[in-house]
Design brief:
By secondary structure, the chain is of the alpha/beta class. It is 39% helix and 32% strand.
């Protein structure tokens, strides 16, 4: 089983960045995530992560999201997850971080939510 993380930045502008994550976000894949985020985190104030194909996130992966959260929060922006699977949601919830992020079932719902806030 391939335990890598595929990252695809689908859109980035001054309002919104959309990133598709597929695979496993753990200590080994954290660096590629941080590198990708470093390239786009100052371009947008809002981020949507399409994670319906994210199989696993470790505590170090959640830490990476929290680092981005600090930057986004300073800009009064939002981080929203779309398609969060139950095992991933459970990890966020158990660690107490689910309340920091928006969760929607589709990209359209997330864009609409962000546009209104």
């Amino acid at each position: 089983m391939d335990k890598s993380l595929l990252i695809n930045v689908e859109r980035t502008d001054n309002f919104l960045t959309v990133i598709n994550l597929k695979g496993f976000m753990n200590l080994y894949s954290k660096e590629s995530f941080i590198e990708t985020i470093a390239d786009v985190k100052n371009r947008s104030k809002n981020f949507i992560f399409l994670i319906d194909e994210l199989e696993y996130v470790s505590s170090s992966g959640i830490g990476s999201f929290m680092e981005l959260y600090e930057t986004v929060n300073e800009k009064n922006g939002t981080i929203c997850f779309c398609g969060m699977k139950e095992p991933v949601k459970r990890i966020f919830d158990l660690m107490g971080f689910l309340s920091f992020f928006c969760e929607k079932s589709s990209l359209n719902e997330a864009v609409e939510y962000i546009s209104k806030n």
